[in-house]
Amino acid sequence: MSGYHFLFVPGPSNVPAAVQQAIHCPMEDHRNPTIPDLIMPINEDLKKILLTKTGRVVFFPSSGTGCWEAALQSTLNMGDKVLGASFGQFSMLWLDMCKRLGFEPITMEEEWGTGANPENYHKHLSADKNHEIKAVLVCQNETATGVRSDVKAIRKVLDDLNHPALLMVDGVSSVASYEFKMEEWGVDCVVSGSQKGFMLPAGLGILGVSQKAIEKMKESTYPTCYFDVVDMMAKLDGGYLPYTPPVNLLRGFRVAIDLILKEGIENIWKRHHRLAEGTRQAITNGWGLNLCAKEEKWYSDTVSAIVVPDGADAVPVISTAFHKYNLALGAGLAKVAGKVFRIGHLGDLNECMLFGAISGAEMAMIDNGIKVEPGSGAAAASKYWTENPGDK
Amino acid sequence: MSGYHFLFVPGPSNVPAAVQQAIHCPMEDHRNPTIPDLIMPINEDLKKILLTKTGRVVFFPSSGTGCWEAALQSTLNMGDKVLGASFGQFSMLWLDMCKRLGFEPITMEEEWGTGANPENYHKHLSADKNHEIKAVLVCQNETATGVRSDVKAIRKVLDDLNHPALLMVDGVSSVASYEFKMEEWGVDCVVSGSQKGFMLPAGLGILGVSQKAIEKMKESTYPTCYFDVVDMMAKLDGGYLPYTPPVNLLRGFRVAIDLILKEGIENIWKRHHRLAEGTRQAITNGWGLNLCAKEEKWYSDTVSAIVVPDGADAVPVISTAFHKYNLALGAGLAKVAGKVFRIGHLGDLNECMLFGAISGAEMAMIDNGIKVEPGSGAAAASKYWTENPGDK
Q1: Chain B residues with CB-CB distance to A under 8 A?
Q2: Is A17-262 assigned to CATH 3.40.640.10?
Q3: Class of the CATH-defined domain B6-12+264-387
Q4: What pLDDT digit, counting tens, does each position of A80-130 carry?
Q5: In CATH, what is the architecture of A6-12+265-387?
Q6: Cβ(B242)–Cβ(B232) below 8 Å
Q7: pTM here?
Q8: C-alpha dihedral (A90, A95, A96, A99), degrees to nearest 10
Q9: CB nearest B359 (choices: A1, A263, A378)
């Protein structure tokens, strides 16, 4: 197919040219003496992105899913109770992993299109007088429904109850894109992945751990090897990994981190918000369609799930976009399959790219008989972006 | 700046990923024994793109401008008269080159926004009873004004008068993009460059020559060396160049030619026409602005020059697009500086890319106080593309 591939799934996100060029490097021995010069500054710089001073950040050759596992295995013991809300494919899968690994998840089902409900966390934690719940899981950004949860509010529940459980956050599709403050919010474990806000190909899981989490690791008897965080911290301190890392990806990681630090994490949050809001204007004011996220407080700045009108099917819209317009949109998963399509708006992104995604999705809807006014998406986004130039 | 750079000047055009990857190859000795396996099929395949069976196609490490020079030097003699129409920066420059090189150009000035006028060619050629005019120059696509000229009509003038002058065509920004038929149209020399329809970085000039042109080379006493077409043909026949070629660019050339032959030259013309027409709909029906090209018969399928309203200045529009929206638009040149901006729509291109260019240019106009309706460009383009799906 001619022209750029328009990649608008909510991750992998688009990789900047400078990062692609850095990854495209000669292969090298992962034990060569220059490796610590690469690794050790990354160890420090990641703290500036996750916003922790006292915590640690490690990374694994894995997807974000691997770091879900690393966080659980390294800090908990077999049979420990964990509490979490399920309101989409990914918040559900993390709790499912807890079960598969031998923990005892307490799952709070929330309506898809909403997020973590602090009141329900409060109910369970206040009833847990013996502190049998060892970890509280929150998915900050539910990629399946385009929902943001309020991590600070869950921290407040724990604080109000003086509950000692670890606070674990899935920040795979929020970290380095919209507001996340590990230290200030008292997050003990936060999981991310290279292929979202970090603007890399998939291949690196990123895990932030607090000193409290590190203390808990000493008490853990859970059998770990690949995802042993204690091992990983010790090896990274020496400038290497315990096993073969993808060094070319780490060369790209270096450049991606430089780009993030140069733009500034708060500027990145602002850019994502402005681009997300323009996209939402296209969806709601332009097309007159609904977001899957039920209320404004749930709106995600990295992905919008768009509900197609009653009787319409999102599947052929996605297929038309891909095959006719070289545009990859995100599919609806599980409960919302066929009911929504998703536009990812995270990572290395600008207005012109989003115009392609918005107007391309619009043509794919029109081609499939969904009544939206041609140009209405671009009109609403354009109006928002010209009236709200941000720091530009 | 974040996100893709939207490159919408009328060349260099966007380079497909497969071509970029091919260019990004290890350096190699340009005299190594595998080079003829690269060069000799290119010699043959270029004929399929320029549509000549009896002619030859050569290429130089140069820009298209270099092949303007090669065509003139190799076939003419010092002091020879050449006839050409000037109606924009590039048609003007080719005639200027004729003067600088010691030929005697007869320049027919045409209004910018129109193209080569067959009646004026007829006037001069019919008066040239002694056949002192040795070459007739036509710029098929005037990139400065977005104007296409009718090469067939000029051929007909020569045929009707039985005039023996060589027909030379500047096809830099038309060949491999819209209709050009070297053999059928009786073109003796056609000049192109790698950075337009051929979807490569700049660096290769491409020159097609007819058997009649090759015969004329025998009579030429013009001093040539670098741009000696006879030398180049002989060396290319052996699978090498007379001097150092950029072999990495030739590796990319191979892949670009493969992409062109796979899509099919007539399909490429159709795709360019459909994308160009959507862009024109955005400009005229959407924005209510005028093209620099005065009439439909002059419309170029590779570049549109858009006239900003009276009193407005195109320069800050182009600057805003570049600095605020990461979008490179073409500037107005010479006579139309400040009066027009240009959108190139050639090469490796699709609808979503053009939506970025159209809506980005629209925002840049709005930012500079030019009254266009937000979204009106995308609306008109979208309507055209969904109602005219082509072969999709």
Answers
A1: 1-4, 6, 14, 24, 263, 271, 286, 324-327, 348-353, 355-360, 362-363, 366-367, 373-383, 385-386, 389, 392
A2: yes
A3: alpha beta
A4: 999 999 999 999 999 999 999 999 999 999 999 999 999 999 999 999 999
A5: Alpha-Beta Complex (3.90)
A6: yes
A7: 0.95
A8: 160
A9: A378
